[in-house]
Write a structure and sequence with these properties.
This protein is an all-alpha fold. The chain has one domain: Growth Hormone, Chain: A, CATH 1.20.1250. The protein contains 16 helices and no strands. The longest helix has 30 residues.
Length: about 400
C-alpha cells in the first residue's frame, strides 16, 4: 500500500490542475464570450484530446518498453509541459492566446493521464485494486479540496496564483513519482504486450458487459461533468453567490469525496462493485433533484457534502470494474477506453447543458443532471456479473 499512497501524488497533481481549470477558466472565457453554451463547448477542449489521444496512448503504453518502464516516459514528457502551459493561461492577452494556452495545456495533460491511471493496476494485485483506487482517489480528492479552497483565496489575490501553484505542485509530484515508483521493480508482472497497437486491440475489448458498463459511465459522467463545468456560473448567476463562494462550495463536494473514497473501496470489495455503484447513482439522483429547490448557501453545501459521498461510491468502483472485465495485458487499452467514453460524455455535457441553460435558465441544470443519472442506472442494471474476469469473480464471491 505504500507504493499506492506514493502513486497517489500523480492523481493529486491531476486533480489540482483540473479543479482549478474548471473553476476559473470559465471566468476568463466569460470576458470574451456571452453564450453559456459556447463557454461550455470551450471547456470541453481537454476531452477532445482525451477522446482522440488517450485510447491510443493507453494502448501504446501497454507496448512501450524503456529503462524507465512502460508508463513513466509519458509522465516525464507530459507533466513539465502541462505545468508550463497551465501557468501561461491567466496571462492571455486576448481570446486567441487564451485558447492557444488552453489547447497546449490540455494536449500535454493527455500525454500522461492514461499512463498515470494504468500504473495503479500495474503495481497492485487484482484483489486489492478497489481499495487501491480508493487510496489514490483520496489523494486526488485532497488535491481538489486544496484547489477549490486555496484556489479561491489565491484567485482573489491575483488570477495567476492558482495556476502557478498548480504548476509547482505538478513538478513536485513528478519528482516524487520518479524516485518512488520503479516500474520494472514494482510491477506485479512487468511484461509489455506484444505487437503494435491497432484497431483490433480495441475491438476485442468490447464485450457485452463492457458495453453496458460504458453506457452507464457515459451517462453518469454526462451528469457529473456538466455540473462541475457549469457550477461556478450556476452559483454566481442563479444563486447570486460571489465567484469565490461558488468555487469554494465545490470544496464541500470534494471534501466528502475524500472522506468517502477509502470506505467506498472497502465497500466495493465487501459487497461487490456493481451494488455499491448502484447505491451511489440512486443517491445522486435524489441529491441533484433536491439541489434544484435550494436557494441559499448552507443547504446547498450540505447537499453537496452528501452528494460527494455518493459520487465516491460510483467513481471509486467504476475504473476497477472496467479493468475486471478484461485481461491483465489490456490494462492500458481499457484505461484508454474508459477515458474515451468519459471524455465523450464530458464533450457532450457542458455545451448541451449550457444550451439548455440558455433556453430555459440556470434552474434546469440539476434537473438534467438527475435525469442523466437515471439513465446511467438503467445501463448499470444491464451489466451481468458473469462478465467479470475469473479472478475478479472469484475474489468478489469470496467476500
Amino acid at each position: 500500500m505504500k507504493k499506492t499512497w506514493l502513486l497517489g501524488f500523480g492523481f493529486f497533481s491531476i486533480s489540482v490542475t483540473w479543479a482549478l481549470y474548471n473553476a476559473f477558466v470559465p471566468f476568463f472565457l466569460e470576458k470574451f464570450i456571452t453564450s453559456t453554451a459556447l463557454i461550455g463547448f470551450m471547456m470541453t477542449i481537454d476531452n477532445y484530446f482525451a477522446m482522440l489521444l488517450q485510447p491510443w496512448i493507453g494502448s501504446r503504453s501497454d507496448r512501450t518498453n524503456t529503462r524507465f518502464g512502460r508508463r513513466m516516459p509519458y509522465l516525464l514528457i507530459g507533466m513539465p509541459l502541462a505545468a508550463v502551459f497551465g501557468t501561461l493561461i491567466p496571462w492571455h492577452t486576448g481570446l486567441l492566446t487564451l485558447i492557444l494556452f488552453m489547447v497546449l495545456m490540455n494536449l500535454s495533460m493527455s500525454l500522461y493521464r492514461s499512463p498515470t491511471v494504468a500504473l495503479m493496476p500495474d503495481i497492485t494485485e487484482d484483489s486489492k485494486r478497489t481499495q487501491a483506487n480508493g487510496i489514490i482517489n483520496f489523494m486526488g480528492g485532497v488535491g481538489s479540496i486544496i484547489a477549490f479552497a486555496g484556489g479561491a483565496y489565491l484567485y482573489e489575490k491575483h488570477s495567476s496564483l492558482p495556476f502557478l501553484s498548480a504548476a509547482i505542485l505538478t513538478l513536485i509530484c513528478m519528482a516524487i513519482l520518479i524516485f518512488a515508483i520503479k516500474e520494472r521493480r514494482d510491477a506485479i508482472a512487468y511484461t509489455p504486450a506484444p505487437g503494435r497497437e491497432s484497431f483490433s486491440s480495441f475491438k476485442k475489448e468490447w464485450n457485452r458487459p463492457t458495453l453496458f458498463l460504458l453506457g452507464a459511465i457515459f451517462f453518469w459522467f454526462l451528469s457529473y461533468q456538466g455540473v462541475e463545468a457549469l457550477f461556478t456560473l450556476y452559483g454566481k448567476n442563479h444563486l447570486q453567490l460571489t465567484e469565490g463562494e461558488a468555487s469554494f462550495s465545490l470544496a464541500f463536494f470534494s471534501l466528502a469525496f475524500v472522506l468517502g473514497a477509502i470506505p467506498s473501496g472497502l465497500l466495493g470489495k465487501r459487497f461487490g462493485k456493481k451494488p455499491v455503484i448502484a447505491v451511489g447513482i440512486v443517491g445522486l439522483i435524489v441529491i441533484f433533484a433536491a439541489i434544484s429547490f435550494v436557494s441559499s448557501l448552507l443547504p446547498l453545501r450540505v447537499l453537496l457534502i452528501v452528494g460527494g459521498l455518493f459520487w465516491a461510491m460510483i467513481n471509486i468502483n467504476s475504473y476497477p470494474f472496467i479493468v475486471a472485465l478484461g485481461k491483465e495485458e489490456s490494462i492500458g487499452t481499457r484505461t484508454g477506453i474508459y477515458y474515451l467514453i468519459s471524455s465523450l460524455a464530458a464533450i457532450t455535457s457542458p455545451p448541451l447543458l449550457g444550451a439548455m441553460i440558455d433556453w430555459f435558465g440556470y434552474s434546469v441544470l440539476f434537473y438534467i443532471a438527475s435525469g442523466s443519472m437515471v439513465v446511467a442506472l438503467l445501463f448499470l442494471l444491464g451489466v451481468s456479473d458473469k462478465g467479470l474476469s475469473k479472478s475478479s469473480a472469484a475474489q468478489e464471491a469470496s467476500m
